[in-house]
């Protein structure tokens, strides 16, 4: 009886085994009996994937007709060493469409072969597990010239090898060798039959590494501001509010402000209209009330970062939540509503490193917006037009798109090509804070007559523009101290500060994004900033006159940089340098806020833009 039961179980296992063999991708020491895959292949080898990546992915979108193409392999992977290689098929053209993935197929023994069949418009991923050693083969491989080449890299991510798009994901630091036939032009073609082709395309460049398709220069930005002041663009509220009437009354007073030509605390040339700014600031102090949402958990909400590159959003959050003068507990008394999240902590908490996928960050903020709009009536009343956020991380424009579209956004990345709205949004200064206890440490610089260096720049080669700057000016002229990245260390940091304190002009080119902390650094060290970043809206653009304390150039002017700077008269330079010193007070963070400092200037610009955007 026991032997019969054992034979019955073995029979069931055998039947299941054969059924799975017929369903899964064929594999074995040779071809399955029902497969017509040829036995000989021209090979492209990726040997030596035996370090610590979790998996290896080749993305291949088939191109052209595949009629009459069945029971033969477009792509073959021979597994020489494994544990557990995995194959996933992906249908359609969207690699991120998880719904299109079928179940995973596992191959269990050394020497097994995976035959990947391309049918119709499918794309496939060959995903091979950690420890695999694999050859990829094509039935017919397009003729290439040149020998094999070798790439050794650590922490490898999405890259191109000979034009082949390859993705390697890691669990820890690794050293992976990838060998491929070299000298591919821009694509590698695998022919499965005379009427079907599989093509692997090279990876597209990232947006931040390419010049923008459109350019908005400072003169056009001024015209846009004037046009938008003349016609408010905010969403009409769904019902009226007493606070709206108070803001409208403030607008009338600002537009008819008494003429002011001089002020003991304000330097008139710095402002577009000193009279309007002064009156608006007074009305802000007298009228403005802000409600801060308590919803949201740390560390993304209510936990400010006060040091480093993104410190501006943290300092504003800290000082706003501690404020007892502007903040109210009753939302019915508020003119503005603050969304107190940190874009830096959002990235730190939720972004999966090297995934190149930020959709979960945007979805997180969308869920938060949905929550407060359901829980409270205020967001829905105006569509968010009386709500504001303050964010300094580069990704904030993307993360707040659509669901916070009508909010007032105070952003360091003030890029008009990324949705920044002049006249509604606020350009936030990117202030690199090195000391929380003393944010103004190392402030100041040499007098104008004791600055021997004409122009200075040193920094990483981020983006497409900085290499162009170095190409034209590095080691080309003794008056132009243009360098690449300085070595790390306190001594080199002090050398960097020393150069800024001894330079007439500090070059502030864009990096990956349009903004740069060098603008505020130059003001700190009393060096006239030379801003080279098309589409960048300078901080507090709605109230400050940047022509009074900076030079703003188009990116195309880099070859003529020295000629432009030496053509500035000494008289004009002295006025610019004086403007920088007078502007300093507006770019400082203080542990206890002071009148007209960076906290109050940020809050004022948010208030000012709301005043001129309001509709009844």
From TrEMBL:
Membrane topology value: Single-pass type II membrane protein
Signal sequence, start to end: 1-30
Exostosin GT47 domain sequence ranges: 285-567
Superkingdom, natural source: Eukaryota
Pfam families associated with the record: Exostosin_GT47
Keyword Aminoacyl-tRNA synthetase appears in the UniProt entry: no
Name by which UniProt lists this protein: Probable glycosyltransferase At5g03795 isoform X2
């Amino acid at each position: 009886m026991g032997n019969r039961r054992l034979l019955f179980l073995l029979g069931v296992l055998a039947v299941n085994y054969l059924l799975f063999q017929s369903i899964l991708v064929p594999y074995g020491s040779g071809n399955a009996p029902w497969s017509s895959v040829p036995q000989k292949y021209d090979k492209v080898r990726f040997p030596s994937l035996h370090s610590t990546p979790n998996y290896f992915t080749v993305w291949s979108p088939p191109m052209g007709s595949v009629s009459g193409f069945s029971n033969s392999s477009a792509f073959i992977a021979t597994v020489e060493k494994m544990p557990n290689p995995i194959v996933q098929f992906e249908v359609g053209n969207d690699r991120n469409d998880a719904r299109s993935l079928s179940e995973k197929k596992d191959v269990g023994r050394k020497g097994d072969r995976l035959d990947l069949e391309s049918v119709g418009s499918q794309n496939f991923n060959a995903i091979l597990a950690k420890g695999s050693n694999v050859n990829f083969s094509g039935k017919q491989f397009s003729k290439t010239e040149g020998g094999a080449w070798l790439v050794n890299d650590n922490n490898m991510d999405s890259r191109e090898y000979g034009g082949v798009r390859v993705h390697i994901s890691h669990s820890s630091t690794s050293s992976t060798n990838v060998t491929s036939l070299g000298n591919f032009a821009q694509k590698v073609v695998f022919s499965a039959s005379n009427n079907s082709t599989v093509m692997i395309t090279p990876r597209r460049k990232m947006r931040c590494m390419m010049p923008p398709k459109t350019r908005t220069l400072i003169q056009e930005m001024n015209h846009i501001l004037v046009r938008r002041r003349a016609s408010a663009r905010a969403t009409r509220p769904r019902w009226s509010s007493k606070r709206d009437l108070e803001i409208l009354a403030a607008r009338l007073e600002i537009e008819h402000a008494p003429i002011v030509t001089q002020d003991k605390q304000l330097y008139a040339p710095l402002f577009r209209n000193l009279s309007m700014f002064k009156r608006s600031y007074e009305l802000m102090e007298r009228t403005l009330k802000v409600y801060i949402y308590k919803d949201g958990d740390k560390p993304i909400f209510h936990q400010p970062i006060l040091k480093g590159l993104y410190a501006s959003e943290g300092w504003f959050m800290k000082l706003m939540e501690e404020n007892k003068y502007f903040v109210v507990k009753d939302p019915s008394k508020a003119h503005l509503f603050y969304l107190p999240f940190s874009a830096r902590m959002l990235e730190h908490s939720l972004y999966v490193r090297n995934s190149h996928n930020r959709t979960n960050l945007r979805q997180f903020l969308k869920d938060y917006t949905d929550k407060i709009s359901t829980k409270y009536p205020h967001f829905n009343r105006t569509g968010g037009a009386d709500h504001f956020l303050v964010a300094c991380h580069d990704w904030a424009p993307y993360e707040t798109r659509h669901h916070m579209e009508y909010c007032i956004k105070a952003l360091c990345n003030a890029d008009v090509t990324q949705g920044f709205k002049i006249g509604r949004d606020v350009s936030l200064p990117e202030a690199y804070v090195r000391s929380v206890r003393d944010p103004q440490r190392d402030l100041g610089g040499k007098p104008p007559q004791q600055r021997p260096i004409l122009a200075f720049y040193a920094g990483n080669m981020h983006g497409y523009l900085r290499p162009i700057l170095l190409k034209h000016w590095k080691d080309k002229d003794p008056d132009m101290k243009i360098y690449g990245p300085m070595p790390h260390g306190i001594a080199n940091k002090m050398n960097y500060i020393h150069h800024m304190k001894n330079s007439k002009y500090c070059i502030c080119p864009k990096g990956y994004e349009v903004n740069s902390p060098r603008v505020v650094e130059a003001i700190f060290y009393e060096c006239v900033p030379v801003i080279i970043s098309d589409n960048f809206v300078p901080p507090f653009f709605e109230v400050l006159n940047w022509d009074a304390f900076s030079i703003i150039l188009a990116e195309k002017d880099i070859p003529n940089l020295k000629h432009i700077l030496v053509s500035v008269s000494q008289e004009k330079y002295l006025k610019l340098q004086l403007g920088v010193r007078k502007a300093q007070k507006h770019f400082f963070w203080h542990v206890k806020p002071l009148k007209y400092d960076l906290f109050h200037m940020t809050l004022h610009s948010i208030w000012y833009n709301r005043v001129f955007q309001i509709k009844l």
